[in-house]
Amino acid sequence: MRRWLTGLLLAIALLSAVWYAEWALREKPAAVSVGSVLGGGDTAGYARVLGPREFSFPADHGPHPDYRQEWWYYTGNLTGEDGRHFGFQLTFFRFALTPKPRPGDSAWSTNQIYMAHFALTDVAARRFYHAERFSRNALGLAGAQAMPFRVWLEDWSVTGDPNATWPLQLRAVDGDLVLDLRLTNLKPPLLQGERGYSRKGQSEGNASYYYSLTRMPAEGTLKIADETLQVSGAAWMDREWSTSVLEEGQAGWDWFALQLADGRDLMFYRLRRRDGSLDPHSSGVIVAADGTSRSLPSDAIGFEVLDHWRSPATGTRYPARWRVTIPSEQLRLEIAPRLAEQELDGSLRYWEGTVKVSGQSAQQAITGHGYVELVGYGDQR
Amino acid sequence: MKAILWRALIRYQLHHRWQLALSILGVALGVAVVVAVDLANDGARRAYTDAAHTITGRTTHQLIGGPQGLDENLYRHLRVELAMRASAPVVEAYGRLPEHATTRVRMLGVDPFAEAPFRDYTRAGGGNNILPRLVGTADSVIITAATAQRLGIRVNDSVTLETGGQQRRLTLIGLLELEDPLIEQALDDVFIVDVATAQDVLGRPGYLSRIDLIIDDDTALLQRLRAWLPAGASLLPAQSRILNLTQMTRAFELNLQALSLLALVVGMFLIYNAMTFSVVQRRGVFGSLRALGVTRRELFMMIIAEALAIGAAGIVLGLVLGVGLAQGLLQIVARTINDLYYAVVAPDFSLSALPLLKAGALGIAATVLAALVPAREAISTPPRTVLLRSFSETRLRSRLPWLAAIGVSSAVLGVAVSTWPSTSLTLSYTGIFLFICGYALLLPAATVLLMRVLKRLAAWFGLVGRMAARGVAISLSRTATAIAALTVAVAVAVGVGIMIDSFRGSVDAWLGNILPADVYVSPAALSGGDLKPEVVRQLSVLPGVLEASSGKHVFIESERGITDLFILQPVPRSLAAIRLKQGTPAQTWPAFLDGGAAIVSESYAFRHGVTLGDVIELRSERGPQTFPVAGIYYDYGSDQGVVTISRRTYARYWDDTGVGSMGLYLAPDVEREAFMADLRESFESAQSLQIRSNRKIHEAALEIFDRTFTITEVLRLLAILVAFIGILSALAAMQLERARELAVLRCLGLTPRQLWGLVIAECGLTGLAAGLFAIPLGLALGYALIEIIHPRAFGWTMNLTVDGGLLLQALMLAIVAALLAGLYPAWRVARALPAAVLREE
């Protein structure tokens, strides 16, 4: 009788442990929800994005601290000397914690903080590395400036030539992973939306100032563990600043930045509503090899999700393969992640990774590289 | 057969329930004191180390600077250029909350973004979300929910924090909801702020207290960092820094332990007494048993088993009592450590197994040891003689010379061991214990001699007096242990009393000397820090001030530990106030003032084995520097020792110009109280100050002194309590056992009154004997504490002062205790009907 009881108790304990472990692993909530960072909140006192403005370079490469958030988003595809394919992402986010500068005599006083993400996809090895850092815009720990251009967080940095901005030196180190790239520029800054004024929602001010550098040839070295490789390829930079972007009812977005082999660059984003529908403020743009661009309204792009992938780490389910048709450009493309596991699980949780593009352009076969960002999936809030 | 034997033993014990109860209580009290002291020591130490470990977190090394702290740019360099990711800046200071009078708080200034790898509180409920808000909001603070509740403040309330006499209003922007009670407790009264806020509060932009690092076994990195370090900075292992602090209290803890062991020794006498007594009482039973064929071995084992059973009951009770007692002692111990060594924040009582096991084992060992002699006694006598009542008395008599000889040798050995040239406190205490035991063994012989003398004196009280004196001597086998227990307990009371008196006298005299200035000014109590430069400037030129001295304490830390460095800018009178133990004023002072020499306190010299002419090395802002020792001075301010250098010497190697306190020498015609009142008023807005006359400081210091000896007093009283229980049980048992003898006396014509007088007189004489014997032992103990223990534990020398009143008190204490113990038996004996008693036999 005793023994039987002990057995039963043991079995119950074991079962509850297993159940608990499963429950704990099922779906971890992200530390910060995208909505809480980029959505409404208290926007009082911050500068708002209310209409088109004149962009001026190089000044606008630098920070705009009156707006609540801003980012410098470098992504790119690289090929090693041995033919291996790599994807990289180095992003600097700036957040203003308060609308006004923080008073005080201390050199640590600031209301601006920086977050940076560094990710590298080693396609052949099926490895994805990512790291996150935070620091404050003080004491030289992190910051951004227009002339000479520099954005940095500790020893992750993108630094421009002291006199001419170009070329840029991009450098990031995490443990024994070192990426060191020299970026040049082929096309003028692409002002997104209405001359750089990009509306993201119905309410006034839910918009950002947005420009991109869609094709920057890159070359340099990549060190993984003991291995040092010469790499070359092309990078893309997205620059956005705003005070609020997402609004009630919007869940997140899918963003596509594709560089086609014929020299054309295609960018489009799809703002998703919580009810699953597409927000009409979604849009896109196509840039010709010579730098001229045509905008693509959301209804100009046919879009179909072909596959899904569930992250084993967080339990979040992401779309994983797409068919995109743009009749006006005679493009029919299939976009597929080069590696499924390119989920960044830090303070913000999102999927951002290198993709392979294949399809037809005016009945001719065409290929390309790209980066896709999937934000706001599996978010409970 | 066996079962019958056991029944006989149990029957006996049940028939003597009160006697059983008292012996159990004796053991229990001894064990209780030991376990309580151990638990209290443990608890206070753990309260500190837990807090320290939580605050240190996973830090392996700390980069520290000098009195000026570290330059914040070192952090940027470390983090950005050297890519040392596992690094976190800390600005730390103690302060107080003027609105919450006595609360001392610790301000912990951190960079929320660098914290996560280091400290677990960052994972608290909401921690991730609140901490970064510290960065953006000026003068914001986060505390634990428990602290907020205790202080009665809520989120968005503001609270004034005062450090270095400067106040700043902070806004509570969030609460840490902690699940781990250990972390919760460690963060009690900790004000977590951003580095920027911390610098603003201290008024020290650019300042970091330290940089925490995590370097796991990376010797290459360590070497690289050490090579890079600027001269004023030092890289120390974090654990050793905590250890350095906790080691300061080692001598203090050992002294408490020794005192608690004394209580156990007294308890040991009790069980010895009880067992001897029960053996003596059962001579007849044992004799019959032996005659019936019970072997010696069987009998021996049974007596030991009986003792163990009593011991076990006593230990269980003692552990329970001890745990209760420990909760009271913990607060006293923690307060003492707070006064003397470092800040212990609100220790929570928690039970740990080790002290319980230790005390239990000690209790068992003491019981077995104490029972060995009576058990041997019971079996070593032939069955026939055991039946003779007078046998044990006769035998004890015949053994008196032997006992005395062993006693003398043990005492001599004790003296030799305790004065053996070594610095081991344990050795000294072992010697003292040996001496006490030796002394106790001498007591039976001494009692016989004393009673011979007393018999003459007692003759004045007639027949009853003579009978009483003889009675004490004749029933020696029963009185001797009672007398010994009482003697030892009273002697401890006397010895500790002498030690405290002498210590207090020396401190009092020292305080009378060392405060030559009329008025002392420093930042408000608990708020620490320096006087503001403009305050210093104005103070020295105030009308009515003839001259002013200044001082500052800084703590210099290196691999070898923490040095309390006092920087003195003296006036001639401040030098005259320092009493030199080694060195002459003519040679010492010029070297101290201009020659870059240091003077060190007596306890520093003791701890570091420094004498005149040696050099000491201190880590300065220009790297390690050596200072010749030009003098050793008397100082009772810190048992860790102090190194004093002149302001001029300090300025040579440190860039710190801060002044921690000032001594103002007033013109003779200035009225002090009025002067201080003026001072308070005119500096009110500049800085919150503590302005005290030398007399006030003197009184306050003595108050702290008295407070730190509370724990000693408590232990002393406990030892006396144990002895009192012992004497009660011994005398009561003895008198009750004599019921038949006394009944015979009644029959022979003694009145109940006379009988009552006889019992009381016997008890009184026993007490008198113990009191008289306790005085020389107490003096010896006092001498040993002052001349051996104190120099070895703290490096202090002091003058032995003996107060006659204290000795008289001890004598009275012994007599009163014995008389009280005699009251119940005397009452019973006097009331008993002789016929009934005699029939019972």
Structure description:
The complex is a heterodimer of chains A (381) and B (841). Chain A is mainly β. In chain A, the strands form 2 sheets. In chain A, strands 1, 2, 3, 4, 5, 6, 7, 8, 9, 10, 11, 12 and 13 form a 13-stranded antiparallel sheet that branches. In chain A, strands 14, 15, 16, 17, 18, 19, 20, 21, 22 and 23 form a 10-stranded antiparallel sheet that branches. Chain A is globular and about 65 Å long. Chain A has one domain (56-375): AttH-like fold (Beta Barrel), CATH 2.40.370.10. The longest helix of chain A has 25 residues, at 2-26. The termini of chain A are far apart. Chain A contains 2 helices and 23 strands. In chain A, strand 8 and strand 9 (177-183) form a beta hairpin. Chain A has helices at 2-26, 34-38, and strands at residues 69-80, 85-96, 112-122, 127-136, 142-145, 150-153, 156-161, 165-174, 177-183, 190-191, 197-199, 207-224, 227-242, 250-260, 265-273, 283-287, 293-297, 302-310, 317-326, 331-337, 343-345, 349-361, 364-375. Chain B has 841 residues and is an alpha+beta fold. Among the domains of chain B are: 1-55 and 240-388, no CATH class; 70-208, no CATH class; 528-687, no CATH class. Helix content of chain B is 63%, strand content 15%. Chain B has 31 helices and 21 strands. In chain B, the strands form 3 sheets. In chain B, strands 12, 13, 14, 15, 16, 17, 18, 19, 20 and 21 form a 10-stranded mixed sheet that branches. A 9-stranded mixed sheet of chain B has the order 6-7-5-8-4-3-10-1-11, with helices on both faces. In chain B, a hairpin with a 7-residue loop joins strand 3 and strand 4. Chain B is elongated, with a radius of gyration of 33 Å. The two termini of chain B are 26 Å apart. The interface between A and B is medium-sized, with 27 and 28 residues.
